[in-house]
Amino acid sequence: MIRKYLCGLGALGASMAAATAAWAQEAAPAAAAVPNPGNNAWMMTATVLVLLMIVPGLALFYGGLTRSKNMLSTMTQIGATAALAMLVWVMWGYGMAFGPEGNQFVSWGKFFLAGVTPDSTAATFTSEVISEYVFVSFQMTFAAITAALVLGALVERMKFAAVMVFVVVWLTIVYFPIAHMVWESRGVFFKMGALDFAGGTVVHINAGVSALVAALILGKRKGYPTEPMPPHSLTLTMVGTGLLWVGWFGFNAGSALEANGSAALAMINTFVATAAGGLAWMAVERLRGHKASALGFCSGVIAGLVAVTPAAGNSGPFGAIVLAAIASLVCYFAVTKLKPALGYDDSLDAFGIHGVGGMIGAIGTGIVYAPMFGGPGGADFAIGHQLLIQLFTVVATIVVSSVGTVIAITVAKALTGLRVSPEVEVEGLDIGEHGERAYN
Amino acid sequence: MKFIIAIIKPFKLDEVREALGAIGVAGMTVSEVKGFGRQKGQTEIYRGAEYSTNMLPKVKLEIAASDALAPQVVETIQQTASTDSIGDGKIFVLDLASVTRIRTGETGDTAL
Predict the structure, then answer these.
(1) Residue A29: what pLDDT?
(2) CA–CA separation, A361 vs A331, rounded Å?
(3) Closest Cα to residue A398, out of A179, A256, A205?
(4) Torsional sign, CA A301, A302, A303, A309
(5) What residue ranges do the domains of chain B occupy?
(6) Per-residue pLDDT tens digits for A364-386
(7) Of the candidates A231, A337, A339, which has its C-beta nearest B46's C-beta?
(8) Shortest CB distance from B47 goes to which of A225, A228, A335?
(9) How many CB pairs (< 8 A) connect A and B?
(10) pLDDT computed for residue B52 by the predictor
(11) Measured between CB atoms, which of A230, A337, A340 is closest to B44?
């Protein structure tokens, strides 16, 4: 998606027109761009759909996968992280990602939303505009869910206070700059022509890699991997999966920034790629001699959604189906083989699904964009050149996420101690950190 | 008098109960239990992490029967609850010293 920094330009044009009205009678004054109510209404809806992905979607999806003694801790960390990210976003996040001043790595200005009014607008891909407050809100939900996704690798052992510190530092030094670099017209990856429709790089690779790095520093859960830690409620995980899938239409189709054909393409892809991802995971389970499982279905659905995120408006439906199915298979091996082989404790597979699926999606988008695979690319689209750009963006994102996460976790450790005590970990974080039980 | 304890597969309960009713068994106590024998447990897999549970759910029947009826009860349970597969369960028969019906104070065979 293209996020040009034309925000406020409309208002500027209007005041210039007024000031020069005396002598510019004959020249047509540049009329301030007015948002199309249809586009605005769709983007408001899409924004709220992304919120649905976080609370309750992600909270239930992750919560169901934890042990019952950590259910409230998991859901509370997600809810509070999202809330904190929203406040940080309006204070300095929006300015750092989409501010009026800046370079190819970060921007500044519009801190505390200075200068944003109900009349100011943000550009879309075309000559249309949407209300800037809507754009600010839409982007805010992306920052909130990305921070919450990272927690998937850290739950069941990280202090609530440590999560809060980590989120503020991580958003500031990792998320805002990467969002700027990929989505803002002055950003380094944007200028290179990296394709990331709805956030495969910014959201999923970023969150997945950060999750892995943070989990490595935080250490394994007590008893992992010898002690059984089965999910306490796959029913709630299934409910959360459904809410994530529904909300993801706001995430993907909303990233067109208009209610247009590009959004329609993203919509159909979000249906069929996800379907392929869910079934592919169950098929590979069966082929490996196991039963096709409920958790396999949920995991495949998420893997498919992650993979189609960068490709949503950048692929034809059948390219998206193949891409999601491949991503689902690779993620299957990442969580069932790679994780046990390397021995890290990514509790809920934030890296195995979001990180790995995000990389497959980001690189694959450079292929399925080609018209020969049904993608929307022009006839002169060169797959090889695009793949290099995609690959470079992926690697650069991994580096920024890793370095930033080490810093953010170190700060959290210095201020809070990072991990709960062994007693609290055994008794459960619900009682130890929040003084409540999920089930009485 | 005999006290018969049978451990059977849960899905066989209704069938066994009907068959026992047909041969004149007037009452029994049923509980849901867990345990293991030769069948061992079962394996659960969550994203590749395998957990084997060594206890399986079973149903326990407790029946008090007269000496005359007891062999027939055992035979009926054995034939009805069998699926010819491992994990079908076991039947234990104990001597029963006395039975008292609480409401009337009757004892022995008449209290059964």
Answers:
(1) 54
(2) 11
(3) A205
(4) positive
(5) 2-111
(6) 999 999 999 999 999 899 999 99
(7) A231
(8) A335
(9) 25
(10) 81
(11) A230
Nearest to A1 by CA among A244, A245, A255: A255
* CA A309/CA A216 separation, integer angstroms: 27
Q: Do B51 and A228 count as a contact with CB atoms less than 8 A apart?
A: yes
The chain-wide mean pLDDT, for chain A, equals: 93
Helix axis angle, A206-218 to A383-416, nearest 10°: 40
pLDDT at A377: 92
| Chain-chain contact of A349 with B47 (C-beta, under 8 angstroms) | yes
State whether B47 and A299 contact (CB < 8 Å).
Answer: yes
Please indicate whether, in this complex, the C-beta atoms of B45 and A291 are within 8 angstroms of each other.
yes
DSSP 3-state percent helix, strand, coil across chain B (nearest 5): 25, 40, 35
Q: CA-based angle B75:B19:B60, to the nearest 5?
A: 75
A335 to each of A56, A244, A296, A343, how far by Cα in Å?
Answer: 24, 20, 11, 11
In the predicted model, residues of chain A with pLDDT beneath 50 are 1-27
Q: Which chain B residues are closer than 8 Å to A339 by Cβ?
A: 48
Complete DSSP assignment for A148-164? HHHGGGTTTTB-HHHHH
B52: closest chain A residue by CA = A228
Domain B2-111, CATH: 3.30.70.120
Beta strands in chain B (DSSP E): 2-8, 29-35, 42-46, 49-53, 56-65, 89-95
Domains within chain A, CATH numbers bracketed: 41-109+136-434 (1.10.3430.10)
- Tell me if A336 and B51 make a contact (CB, 8 A cut-off): no
Rounded CA-CA distance A130/A36 in Å is 7
Residue A24: the pLDDT is 41
Contact indicator for A96, A108 with CB cutoff of 8 Å: yes
Nearest CA in chain B to A230: B46
Residue B42 has what pLDDT?
79
What is the least distance, in Å, from the CA of A300 to any CA of chain B?
11
Closest CA to A50 of A231, A245, A211: A245
- pLDDT number for residue A409: 97
